[in-house]
Amino acid sequence: MSDSTANVITVPFDFVYKGDRNYIHGTSAYEQVSEYLSETFPDRMNGSFQMAIHSFAKNRCEFVYTLDSGPMRKPEAGRIEISTSTGIHGWFVESSDEISRRVSFPENKITERCQLGDDRSVEMVSAVPFHPIEVLVAITKHLHLREYPGASGKWVFTRLELDRLLNDDDCGQMGVQIQKSIGTRLTQSAVLSGGKPIGKIYFSMVSEWPE
């Protein structure tokens, strides 16, 4: 159920921790919001999609958004920004409600089915039973660990720009190629499906994150 006040719609989302992380993984945020938007606004899902992770959230979040009103000002406790080319704009806003559940996230089951290239690239060689965003983030991280050995921090997923939402067909043909480093702690990579570009993913090197 959602509550709407002055054209601002608020939807509570339930989250679980993935693996040994004690913060909401970016893949979880994408899974929740893409499923909700696809079910609620199927006619608005034919355009581009963007997600920007501004800071980590340790507690449950609500998705607060507007339709056709332009960018929303960042709310207090706003953590992750969502926008589409079809008029949806909003934020994941962290609450005080703790997350009580945890699920396994064996990324090695994904990365053992990918192949690293000599041109700063990686691609899946077969499908795996994971959500496509989990595949994308896992192989991008795997690529960064190869390309930036000995980094003094942790590579994390911080931004996604897609021409369209990911689908199950992408899982077995996903590819990533690092295009450029922005400064020393941010990268931009092309997202590919079947060898065709479908967007960009950004990773940042961080030295602090929730314990």
Give structural attributes.
single chain; 211 residues; alpha+beta; Thiol Ester Dehydrase, Chain A; 2 domains; twelve-stranded antiparallel β-sheet; 3 helices; 14 strands; globular
Q: How many domains is the backbone divided into?
A: 2
The CATH superfamily of the largest domain turns out to be Hotdog Thioesterase
Give the total of beta strands.
14
Q: Please report the distance between the alpha carbons of the first and last residues.
A: 32 Å
Could you describe the largest sheet, including whether it forms a barrel? Answer: 12 strands, antiparallel
Q: What percent strand?
A: 35-45%
The chain-level mean pLDDT equals: 93
Which consecutive residue ranges, at least 5 long each, have pLDDT under 50?
Answer: none
Shape: globular
General description of the model:
- It is a single chain.
- This protein is α+β, with helices and mostly antiparallel strands.
- 17% of the residues lie in helices and 42% in strands.
- The protein is built from three helices and 14 strands.
- Strand 1 and strand 2 form a beta hairpin.
